[in-house]
Amino acid sequence: MSHREPFLNGTIDIFLDKLHNEGIKSKLDAWLTFLGCDEPEMIVKLITEYPEFEPMYTHLYDLCRNIEGVMKMFSKELQIMDRNTVTYMIDSLQEKLDIANEQLEDKDKAINDKDKTIKDKDKTIAEKDAIIKKLQDELNKKK
Questions:
Q1: For the chain, what percentages of helix, strand and coil (3-state, to nearest 5) are there?
Q2: Phi, psi at residue 50, to the nearest 5°?
Q3: In sequence order, what are the residues at sequence separation of 6 or more whose Cβ sits closer than 8 angstroms to the Cβ of residue 16?
């Protein structure tokens, strides 16, 4: 809560005391009455003097009467929020999966490169073993 709230509440309380003594004298008084007063007599007086507030009171009255509609509205908003949360979670998991797959592909490539290097070295070793055997055979023949 803001540190200004008690100040505003105090100001509205002072205004409401003034309102009962002096009435609505300006557009500012009308707005403060709309925001701070719930007495039916003052609401009727406000609407009589400032008819532009009537649609706002009508809308508020309709909302109060139609609690089921308000609950459906909030339910729909929560459903949208849930859907957005699920979509966000799926996108986040997909991003992590893509990164993991990319890392796995990099590791697979590194393993394949190492396998090729090992095969090349095995081939080189086999060739050298063949040369060594050939040289040993020649050496044994000369003895």
A1: 90, 0, 10
A2: -130, 85
A3: 36, 37
Tokens of 78: 């929560």
The pTM of the whole model exceeds 0.70:
no
Q: Would 31 be classed as within a structural domain?
A: yes
**In Å, what is the CA distance from 17 to each residue of 4, 33, 48, 129?**
20, 11, 20, 109
Residues in the chain, total: 143
Q: Which domain holds residue 56?
A: 1-65
User: Per residue in 61-89, is it b (16+ CB within 10 Å) or e — as a string?
Assistant: eeeeeeeeeeeeeeeeeeeeeeeeeeeee
For the chain, 143 residues long, give each residue's pLDDT as a single digit of tens: 444 444 445 577 788 878 877 888 889 889 888 988 888 898 999 999 999 999 999 988 887 787 777 777 778 888 888 888 989 999 999 999 999 999 999 999 999 999 999 999 999 999 999 999 999 988 888 86
- Is residue 11, in this structure, part of any structural domain at all? yes
Dihedral sign (CA 11, 12, 16, 21): positive
